[in-house]
């Protein structure tokens, strides 16, 4: 089973996305701040990081870029209700995997995950642990 770290300050959105991902068969860890996300990343191996761009204590693009710098195999998806060409370009320049604008449908997120995870074979938790030990 693949583990996803979901980071969003909006707890209602966080819980609804978590329910969707669990229903799809993923193991999901959650955090509402960048600092809490780093705590999870320090103890858990994750295959996918899904983060809101605007977090109370950090920028989601920077959070994802820092994490991918430590573990390039991890897929990173940025969610935002405030899209701009500049933030999309920043995400692309940091080699993040996807940028999804809110509101989006569950089908859109599912299709994006399917696409990302089939573009390179899905990684098991054991394989992720070998490639990406917690920081």
Description of the molecule:
The protein starts with a strand and ends with a helix. It has 135 residues and is of the alpha/beta class. It has a single domain, classed as Response regulator (Rossmann fold, 3-Layer(aba) Sandwich), CATH 3.40.50.2300. Helices cover 47% and strands 19% of the residues. The longest helix has 14 residues, at 106-119.
Structural features:
five-stranded parallel sheet; 19% strand; 135 residues; Rossmann fold; alpha/beta; globular
Portion in helices: 40-55%
The CATH architecture category equals: 3-Layer(aba) Sandwich
Fourth-tier CATH superfamily name: Response regulator
CATH topology (level 3) name: Rossmann fold
Largest sheet: 5 strands, parallel
Number of domains in the coordinates? 1
Helical region count?
6
Strand content: 15-25%
Summing up helix and strand content along with how strands pair, one would put the structural category as: alpha/beta
CATH class: Alpha Beta
Radius of gyration: 13 Å
Averaging pLDDT over every residue, what do you get?
87
Q: Shape, please?
A: globular
